[in-house]
Amino acid sequence: MTELVLSQNPAHTRHGSSSGQPLTRLDGPLKVTGRAIYAADQRPEGLLYAVMAVSTIARGRVVSLDVAAARAHPGVVDVMTSEHRPKIFVDPDVHDQPFNFCFQALQDDRVRYAGQPIAVVIAQSLEAATEGAGLLAPRYESETARLTLDDVESFTPPFVGVGHPAMAQKGDVEAGLASAARKIDATYETPMQFHNAMEPHAIVAAFEGRKLTIDTPTQALAFGRARFAEIFGLSPDDVLVRCPFLGGGFGGKGLMSGPIVLGVMAAKLTGRPVKLVAARAQLYGPFGHRSPTRQRLRLGVDAEGRLTALAHHAKIATSTFDAFFEAAADASHTLYASPAIRTSHEAVRLDTGTPMFVRAPGEASGSIALESAIDEMAAAQGMDPLAFRLLNYAEREPISGKPFSSKRLRECFAQGAEAFGWQGRPLAPRQMQDKDGLLVGWGVGVATFPAVMFQGVARAVLHADGSGRIEATGQDMGQGAWTALAQIGADALALPLDKVEFRSGTSKYPDAGMAGGSGHTATAGLAIHNAGGDAIAKLAALATQDPQSPLYGAGNAGVIARDGRLMRRDDEARGESFAVIMARAGVAEIAGEGKGAADPAAQQQYAMHAHGAVFAEVKVDPDLGMVRTTRLVGAFAAGRIINPRLAQSQYFGGMIWGISFALHEEALLDRRTGRVLNADLSEYLIPTNADAPAMQAIMVDERDPHVNALGVKGVGEIGITGTAGAIASAVWHATGVRARKFPIRPEMLM
Ligand code: MOS
Question: Which of 204, 392, 596, 696 is such that its CA lies 20 to 30 A from the CA of 3?
């Protein structure tokens, strides 16, 4: 299977609107029966296997490699090194825009981080390649690695995130703090985190003359195709990237990294198809991670508890060779009204791989610090944390002053609090215990994520037999994109879902934009919506200009489409089916094209964000400091929900990552070698079923007329942002101990 074709699922014979239905995943049966084929499952004729050797030091130079020993090993075909590799057409060290990941392509003998590829052994079998890589016996010249935020001088980054200024402000923060009746000044630390997708990064690359076919898990098929073309000096038309299924992405599969490029280089070097799959331990280095942060929050309030100033400063890390800067402080742009706000960043360059987008980039790290500080201030002020947030509720986006396109955070507070049973929460900590003597605490955190859109196009086709077809690149990393986009497609073509074939998962289809920034449903969905509208308009033009049609003379605006029929708007009894119209006109297909992109005028005028409120209950063992999250209720307002079942699953996934952020995960670097000590899924702690409590995700009804024609904001990332802070606050409420460093460990609470 090299593309995704979903069609004719009889379980989905349903009329009327498909959007809004809580359908199960259309690709679910393929997955549970093993028919879903992932990149590393591909096995083209003549395949060779490539295995990377990666550096065990973090900074220095490779002095020697025993290439002869590896080459002599039975089954080894070639050994690619910085001295023996095909030409590439870009400089891997040039980072000229935020969406170009710098990467290692064996360009020189420098070692810039532990885990950097230093050679690739290519062999007839995976075993031979693995054994060959083990014979390289690298020797290094090693320098002292810089591994923490304190190891090296900092600088102001040229931009943060996808290109925002490193500093933003309004009003006079110092004056606001000086005049405050109460102040807090607190510093929070968050650790390095990795994506930990179940499916490892992998590639199968094959050249046929100048034609390059690539199977690789990617969140951005068309973007990937363009990047491969650029790197290998090809026309994009000569490159086909296929990715019908991904086993998780979380931002780690958004941009093409070095090892993936090495797979193509190995295919070029040998003239044979090559498969390169990163081993689990190799995923902790070249593929991006969440930057560690140290964030200082300074808040001032007047006697009533109204903010007079809010300053959020984030120190973050990047690599020595790239320019990704985690926009952690930007979380304070949107949530709280204050006459003076300043957000700022400083960065250090470390001998690690480059940090990258990780689910809820910026907001995940930033909001745990902001929400913790807000909670500390509410407590200092003797106020209920929810009441404190309502008092400082931003009616407009605080720094820009723009109105929100929609913001139903108040309703999130109300519905979440009601479902959780927040009322009657004691203000002071250590007031609640369960029957087993565990300390019980309740906390709340605000969730926020921008409503992002990329640019995309899609095609929607009506067939003469009354069925339809949608074509768009699309990427489903498990979030349910195939299903939600097919639902939008069925509605766009005014057909029941079982009459619409959905084709996606390869770069040969129209580029519907990347799956990232929680913007895939909005972008690809809007493109599909518009493509369907275009096809229907063409069909309506045929009918309304045909004297034999009951719709003759109605004009395009005078007809509506539903369930495969066009009808007169003023008299729905007068109409005919799509098939009849097309048969009479003698056309086999009517194709519509559509674009999906943000409306710049609306963006100019409005601030667009999804919001939510997460309520957490934790229980803490007073002797052992062990924390369990026992209840989580999130209420989210993210515009229109295309599929409530899948949206719930996205919220739950985000909320579980919030538990992880607050309590579990942290990548630890060996101070001597710079290697990740816990580079596997048993030592890198993430929540299991036993750590995930009963959860509820409430979808607060929100109609947004400005964000896009579908009213969709996106649900993929926001769940983390409220949850981590809510749990930290609940831990304080249970124990009286404020977490200033994450994850919260038992020893901090004893
Ligand atoms: Mo997301 S971190 O933009 O895939």
Answer: 596
254 lines ligand 1 (CB under 6 A): yes
Mark whether 605 and 727 lie in a shared domain. yes
Same domain, 445 and 511: no
Residue whose pair of structure tokens reads 């929070």 in the numeric block: 188
- Do 352 and 431 contact (CB within 8 A), yes or no? no
pLDDT of 497 > 80? The answer is yes
Question: Is the shortest distance between the CB of 734 and ligand 1 below 6 Å?
Answer: no
Q: Token match 């075993």: residue?
A: 127
What's the domain count of the chain? 2
Distance CA 523, CA 488 (A): 12
Mutational test site, ligand 1, from 195, 223, 287, 357, max ligand atoms within 8 Å of CB: 357
Type and span of the H or E element at 350: strand 341-350
What's 502's domain CATH number? Answer: 3.30.365.10
Ligand 1 in contact with 467 (CB < 6 A)? Answer: no
Looking at the structure, do residues 470 and 530 belong to the same domain, yes or no?
A: yes
3-state helix, strand, coil in the chain (%, to 5): 30, 25, 45
Range of the domain at 630: 402-452+600-750
Residue with tokens 């600088």: 155
- Is the CB of residue 219 below 6 angstroms from any atom belonging to ligand 1? yes
Same domain, residue pair 466 and 572: yes
Of 561, 580, 597, the residue that ends a domain is 597
Read off the pLDDT of residues 626-661 as tens digits, 9 standing for 90 and up: 999 999 999 999 999 999 999 999 999 999 999 999
Same domain, 535 and 675: no
pLDDT of residue 557: 87
Report CA(252)–ligand 1 centroid distance (Å): 7
413: in domain: yes
Q: Which atom of ligand 1 is nearest to the CA of 360?
A: 2
Q: What does the pLDDT read at residue 555? A: 87
pLDDT in tens, 58-95: 999 999 999 999 999 999 999 999 999 999 999 999 88
Q: 182-190 and 293-301: which strand pairing?
A: antiparallel
SS3 state of residue 252: coil
**Residues 539 and 437 grouped into a single domain:** no
Residue 142, in any domain of the structure: no
DSSP secondary structure string, 9-48?
-GGG---S--TT--PPPTTHHHHHTT-PPPGGG---TT-E
479 lines ligand 1 (CB under 6 A): no
516 Cβ closer than 6 Å to some ligand 1 atom: yes
Assigned domain for 131 exists: no
Ligand 1 site-directed mutation target among 359, 453, 475, 720, most atoms within 8 Å of CB: 359
Any ligand 1 atom below 6 A from CB of 517: yes
pLDDT at 522 over 70: yes
Is 364 part of a structural domain of the chain? Answer: no
Out of 291, 523, 717, 721, mutate this one to test ligand 1's pocket (max ligand atoms within 8 Å of CB): namely 717
With 0-12 / 13-18 / 19 or more C-beta atoms within 10 angstroms meaning exposed / middle / buried, residue 401 is: exposed
* Token duo for residue 329: 């402080």
Among 541, 573, 597, the domain boundary falls at 597
Does the beta carbon of 654 sit less than 6 angstroms from any atom of ligand 1?
no
Same-domain status, 657 and 727 = yes
Residues 735 and 605 in one domain: yes
- Residues contacting 68, CB < 8 A, separation 6+: none
Tell me how far the alpha carbon of residue 424 lies from the centroid of ligand 1, in angstroms: 38
